[in-house]
Amino acid sequence: MEDLLVVTTGGTIDKIYFDDKSDYQVGEPQIGGILKALGVAFGFTVIPLIRKDSLHITDADRALLRATIAAQPTRHVLITHGTDSMVQTAQALASLQDRTIVLTGALNPAGFRGSDAEFNIGCAVGAVQTAPNGVWIAMNGRIWDPRKVRKNVAANRFEAA
Fold first, then answer.
1. The pTM is what?
2. Which end of the chain is more exposed for a tag (fewer CB within 10 A), N or C?
3. Which residues form the L-asparaginase N-terminal domain (predicted)?
């Protein structure tokens, strides 16, 4: 695999919670530090594009994400994204050709003990290297076709649609 392009959009993976206010903010992208700490054996570039909860990602944001990826020569792209609108963003990227694009995120912030962030990132890194060209979602230990998956909010996991 040539260098991996990582594009961040915010979401729970990058959230920082403030206990005294019971509030959160989307902080700096966590994935660069996670990949370095894991000692990955490939180069990567991180483009911090958007810092939003995925419920606030708009069609204009999706168009910006699509244009940013299209402008890069990299064939392997990993996107960190909030889970609530990840499926819609994946579907909006489906027309990008000759690339393997994998979206992943976390149901708990990367800074929390027991977060699923590192596991999901690891699955996404494996998927971006082995999946055929197209757009995929890596969550809960599975690689999903975005046309055939949904987030089950009540169970807090992704499942077949």
1. 0.90
2. C
3. 4-155
Domain count, the chain: 1
* Tokens standing for residue 161: 């649609």
DSSP 72-98: S--SEEEEE--SSSHHHHHHHTTT--S
* Binding residue ranges for substrate: 54, 83-84
Structural domain that includes position 76 = 4-160
Half-sphere exposure of residue 94: CA atoms within 13 angstroms, side-chain side:
10
Instruction: State the catalytic residues.
Output: 12
| Exposed / middle / buried, residue 27 (Cβ in 10 Å: 0-12, 13-18, 19+) | middle
CATH of the domain at 143: 3.40.50.1170
Three-state DSSP state, 100: strand
